[in-house]
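Um, can you check?
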Amino acid sequence: MGPIRTVLDLYDLPPQEAVRPRTLPALRAAVRQVNTLAQAAKYKPMVAMLPGLLVELHTAAHEFTGEQQRQAWGLLAEAYRCGHSVGIAIGLSDLSATALARMDWAAERAGDQAPALRAAREYLRVTAYLRVGDLAACRRLQESGRGHLEGTDAKTPSALVTTGQLHLGSAVVAARARQKDLMQHHLDEAEHVAARTGEQPDLSLHFGPTNVRVHRVMTLVEAGEHDRAVAAAKGLRFPAGWAPTRIGHHHIDLARAYRWMARPEAALDQLDAAYAVAPDQVSRHPLARETVTALSRSASRRSLRLSTWITRTGI
């Protein structure tokens, strides 16, 4: 992770003269590629690619002019987000926080893309605080994200997508606090937005009807409504190209539900499904590790499947 840390730290230095950035379309394709790797939990190739891309985008953002420069700043903001993705995945919360601070620094300079990028950054910041149960911090960040979107409309790039995604994040926080009416309100609001946007890959948030349904399952699990969560997941189909990490998280949530329903084999089935799409994610994810720990403690004897999961998660 050293090269990524270095690039994040040296963000305020002038661009390197020897670096000649590619064209904007080529840079956009590279950012899409690195985000795709992050969303697939393929962290090793993503980490190898990211430092050089950040240096190149940093140079482009300083040297391009006009609209191309503003778009380069937006691409740099999206690439910084990948530092958060790997940091939060492997437990380096300081790296995640630094990457998201750089994301906001670049997003401020991204013209009409700025509101959505800055709001997305606040949405992403919630992850670390949700993991430690600081719901007050989560709510403050969500309000900050909504503040960035004030005055935007449907023509503002990605504004609707981030509006809907912030509602989904607020629904999860409300569910964790057992505020079920508020949870339902935010899910309903997100559903209204998703009806307007359809499935959208913008900012790698994958907002749309599918993500609303996935969050409906997640929030029911968080609220302790495990039977309803399993029922809500029936018949769910993921669009082609949907983020493997999102699919994996959905299966982790169902594994949690089945664990609480005292159905250990069904829980292991869901962990297996998560492993099939995003092995690096599920092996490290704290909710997966928590589920495997609980299954291990409640088992009268350890089956081969459970022993395999104990090994995979290193508990």
